[in-house]
Specification:
Layout (H helix, E strand, L loop, with lengths): L12 H20 L3 E2 L5 E3 H8 L4 H6 L2 E2 L2 H10 L11 E3 L4 H10 L10 E10 L11 E10 L4 H18 L6 E7 L6 H14 L6 H9 L10 H7 L11 H16 L5 E2 L11 E9 L6 E7 L3 H4 L7 E7 H10 L11 E6 L3 H16 L4 E3 L6 H11 L1 E7 L1 H6 L1 E6 L5 E5 L3 H9 L1
Parallel strand pairs: 1-5, 7-8, 12-13, 12-14
Antiparallel strand pairs: 2-4, 3-4, 5-6, 6-11, 7-9, 9-10, 10-11, 14-15, 15-16
Helix pairs in contact: 1-6, 2-5, 6-10, 7-8
This protein binds histidyl-adenosine monophosphate.
């Protein structure tokens, strides 16, 4: 039997409805904040991710699925490496949405000088070659927003407020969410801070794991996220980002917190929150569903240098993304079925006979034209078999068309719960059904 790739999932039934609901709620809420939807290609040039996300990140170094056209694949095997491929021949499946959206903003000049900002949201599959486990997939789905051209700390606060509102509208109890924030500084103060952390790790080199020693060279701040307990204990005494901010970054962070306080949004400051992507500057944040055991359900932050890294003019930016699969798991744990109930339907049953079948065909057309989800039999079942099938579909009403009904120009409407039956004129069928479905 053919099998799906490890770490991927098929979306159908209630799970698909859950994914669609996440998009519906996003469209409504993010729309109120002025965001429009964007879709960028699932494959981009590798450089888009390398420049944006950062060469030294795990996402770029270990997790990106590379894409090679069939024609080039054998060349690549023969060459042994990709050094002779042109940049446009080196492609990858997107591991996240931000770099591609920023590339699209630059390429399509969506934030021309002095013009309105670009406020974009997306709902897309992402691909990361991680070890699959609960809430960690190789193809997963994110809903995210990117806001280009806003430097004011009010924008950071609004993004976070919108994110928390989004979680609530999806069904999370506010108390079940833990919002963690931090500021990572900017191009003015972060380089010196990174050096301090690097020096700290090297001072404790004999206590740190091999990975952290490597991190010290390429990306020292990642040591705060080491899975090794002892490394984390050591890093608890390391210099912290909020204590090493320049004046502007400190003022920005204080202002974001004031706005959050004014909006009554509860948060925890975690001075070790560094996030796994290199483009962040200043505000970063993550949200966890307490006790769900699926890791962060969403995260984001400001990235004032990213547009330049993708070849555009200096433009501030910020955004976040949330993970559909983790949200569905966390909500299920709280007893909330994100996909809700299957939509109500009506079943049209008829007795055998050409005239009855033709009447059933007409009834289906009339009901569907009125927007009613309508099912019927397409396998020549007996009337009893059709009733059984109506139950399987969860039909609320059954329209019954026998020879007598058709001759009299009526249809029998059977309530599938109370089993009460009434006759209605055939011409009024859709209205009568709509009235009963409420
Ligand atoms: P991220 O923290 O890498 O940020 O991912 C955002 C969310 O995607 C996570 O909080 C998690 O819910 C979900 N997620 C990540 N990896 C997986 C996985 N392997 N399986 C299932 N779910 C996963 C970003 O991607 C940034 N682009 C967010 C952002 C937008 N920052 C600014 N703008």
């Amino acid at each position: 039997m053919a099998q799906k790739v490890q770490g991927t999932e098929d979306l159908y039934g209630g799970y698909m409805r859950a994914w669609q609901r996440m998009q519906d709620v996003a469209r409504e809420l993010f729309g109120a904040y002025g965001f429009d939807m964007i879709e960028t290609p699932a494959i981009e040039q590798v450089d888009t991710f390398v420049h944006g996300i950062g060469e030294s990140t795990d996402v770029v170094r270990k997790e990106m699925f590379r894409v090679v056209s069939g024609a080039l694949f054998s060349d690549l095997l023969a060459l042994g490496d990709e050094s002779r491929l042109k940049p446009r021949q080196r492609m990858a499946m997107r591991p996240e949405g931000t770099a591609g959206v920023v590339r699209a903003v630059v390429e399509n000049n969506l934030v021309p000088q002095g013009a309105a900002p670009a406020k974009l949201w997306y709902a897309e599959a992402m691909f990361r070659g991680e070890r699959p486990q609960k809430g960690r997939l190789r193809q997963f789905h994110q809903v995210g927003v990117e806001w280009l051209g806003a430097s004011d700390p009010a924008a950071d606060a609004e993004c976070i407020i919108m994110l928390m509102e989004y979680f609530e509208r999806l069904g999370f109890a506010r108390e079940s969410l833990r919002l963690v924030i931090n500021s990572m500084g900017d191009a003015a103060c972060r380089p010196a801070y990174r050096e301090k952390v690097r020096a700290f790790i090297m001072d404790h080199a004999d206590e740190m794991c091999e990975d952290c020693l490597e991190r010290a060279q390429v990306n020292p701040l990642r040591a705060f996220d080491c899975k090794n307990d002892h490394c984390r204990e050591v890093m608890a005494a390391a210099p912290l980002a909020p204590d090493n901010l320049c004046e502007e970054c400190a003022a920005h962070y204080a202002s974001v917190k004031r706005y959050l306080d004014a909006a009554g949004v509860a948060y925890v400051e975690d001075p070790t929150l560094v996030r796994g992507l290199d483009y962040y500057t200043r505000t970063v944040f993550e949200v966890e569903a307490v006790g769900a055991g699926v890791g962060a359900i969403g995260g984001g932050g400001r990235y004032d240098g990213l547009v330049e890294l993708e070849g555009g003019k200096p433009t501030p930016g910020l955004g976040f993304a949330v993970g559909f699969e983790r949200i569905a798991l966390a909500l299920a744990e709280q007893g909330v079925e994100l996909g809700g109930e299957a939509p109500a339907c009506v079943y049209v049953a008829c007795t055998p006979g050409e005239v009855e079948r033709a009447a059933a065909f007409d009834a289906c057309r009339a009901l569907r034209a009125a927007g009613v989800r309508t099912e019927a039999d397409y396998q020549g079942r007996s009337l009893k078999g059709q009733f059984k099938q109506a139950d399987k579909f969860g039909a609320l009403l059954c329209v019954i068309l026998g020879g007598n009904e058709v001759a009299a120009g009526v249809a029998t409407l059977r309530d599938m719960v109370s089993h009460e039956q009434v006759e209605v004129p055939f011409g009024r069928l859709a209205d009568e059904v709509l009235a009963r479905l409420g």
